[in-house]
Design brief:
Distance between the termini: 67 Å
Order of helices and strands: HHEHEHHHHHHHEEHHHHHEEEHEE
Number of strands: 9
Largest sheet: 7 strands, mixed
Bound molecules: S-adenosylmethionine
CATH architecture of the largest domain: 3-Layer(aba) Sandwich
CATH topology of the largest domain: Rossmann fold
Structural class: alpha/beta
Length: 400
């Protein structure tokens, strides 16, 4: 292992709880204090890294987290439930020993694998994948902690730059990592030590997490069970939720019971035939919500399609949420503005209108400046970036 261990440990610390557009701890606490005082059952339908669920769990609130990203679900599960570190350490030891001895591999289903990994790293990763599947790690909290360490190791032992959320091989990374054999077993071991330090106690948790697609129209929606929904939904242009996790998703594929999501299932997608799921009625309703769409359609039809698709997906998600909430329930949304093809869109305002058109009434709102958050200054003005987020709280009033 050529990389210096202190710098490696630093990047490991940084990596474990990193998640794109993660809710900051302070905001998660503020939202629960302000809106969930008498909460019977809470839902975060776009839970990501589970920041809100962790805060809810610490307050003893019964909560459910949903996300379409299996990595997000794994991270949220480990963070909220914890695990018995001594049992997990034995599992990890067995996995590493068996992978060292056994020659069998479970190949990564990833285009251009040699581009991302050295031959030796790839072989070790694929052996560990084989053993991880045999050991059915996803079935226990301890196994999940090991699976999380494995999934987190993939970026560190790839040739990609560790600093960027999106995997890409920068010149800097090429020079720094050139000729190094990045041993996945060593990285998994270090990562798991850190995961043990952070979450290695079994917690009594009222939180459950579910891998689901909030835009899935055909699946059953539990009726009228949540008193509170608090969430930060995906941003427009947020296809990077998929791109960012490309390597981790390839690694986790076939290691859990559920199939890996397709990139088009992520709300905010820019890929594929975007209008396939957008009806004529959606188009009309979208234009009524956002008159700028007419201009955008002329300026850049593809960008207009991205916005149409985003709004159609968010409409489906909000209708599902509405069905699953009790009368008088509260829905709290954290959202900002976005730049699409140099057009500034007040995404929060549009979502507010969409929510109000589905039976909700706004009862509170405030701005949360994001200057205090750890974002690279160079990203200021980037298409997804915003200066503050708007918190909007609604009450569901169903007609009798
Ligand atoms: C703004 S992030 C949420 C971040 C989260 N609050 C945190 O603290 O980490 C939005 C999340 O929506 C998820 N998402 C995108 N499309 C989805 C879909 N169709 N169904 C469910 N979740 C989806 C993404 O995977 C991402 O984790």
């Amino acid at each position: 292992m050529a990389a210096s261990t202190p710098s490696l440990i630093n990047s490991i610390r940084f990596r474990i709880e990193r998640y794109p557009a993660k809710m900051v701890k302070g905001l998660a606490s503020t939202l629960l204090d302000r809106y969930a005082g008498r909460c019977d059952r809470l839902l975060d339908p776009f839970c990501g890294s589970g920041e809100l669920l962790v805060a809810a769990s610490a307050r003893g609130i019964r909560a459910t987290g949903i996300d379409v990203n299996p990595f997000a679900i794994l991270l949220s599960a480990v963070r909220t439930r914890g695990f018995e570190w001594s049992r997990a350490a034995i599992l990890l030891r067995d996995l590493l020993r068996t992978a060292e001895r056994k020659g069998k591999t479970l190949p990564l289903d990833l285009l251009g694998k040699d581009y991302w990994f050295t031959v030796r790293s790839l072989e070790k990763l694929e052996r560990m994948r084989y053993v991880a599947r045999m050991m059915r790690l996803h079935e226990s909290p301890e196994g999940q902690s090991v699976l999380l360490a494995l999934a987190l190791s993939i970026r560190l032992c790839s040739k990609a730059d560790d600093r960027s959320p999106k995997p890409f091989i920068s010149k800097e990374a090429l020079t720094r990592k050139f000729g190094q054999h990045l041993d996945p077993a060593f990285l998994v071991y270090l990562l798991h030590l850190e995961i043990q330090r952070l979450y290695g106690t079994r917690k009594r948790s009222n939180v459950n997490v579910q891998l689901r697609d909030m835009t899935e129209r055909m699946t059953h929606v539990p009726q009228r069970i949540y008193s509170h929904v608090i969430t930060s939904p995906p941003y427009l242009n947020a296809q990077d939720y998929y791109r960012n996790f490309k390597l981790e998703l390839a690694f986790l594929s076939k290691l859990t019971e559920t199939p890996t999501p397709r990139s088009e299932q992520f709300i905010g997608t820019e890929r594929g035939p975007l209008m396939a799921r957008v009806t004529l009625m959606d188009v009309e309703q979208n234009k009524a919500l956002l008159p700028q769409l007419e201009d955008l359609e002329r300026k850049s039809p593809r960008h207009a399609e991205i916005v149409h698709r985003y709004l159609a997906d968010m409409r489906t998600a909000i209708i599902r949420l509405q069905k699953s909430m009790v009368n008088d329930g509260s829905l709290v949304i954290v959202c900002g503005d976005n730049l699409v093809c140099r057009t500034r869109i007040n995404t929060w305002r549009v979502l507010n209108r969409l929510i109000e058109s589905n039976g909700f009434t706004l009862f509170d709102s405030f701005d949360d400046p994001i200057r205090a958050r750890a974002l690279a200054p160079s990203r200021a003005g980037h298409k997804g970036l915003i200066k503050e987020e708007r918190i909007s709280a609604f009450r569901l009033v169903r007609p009798h």
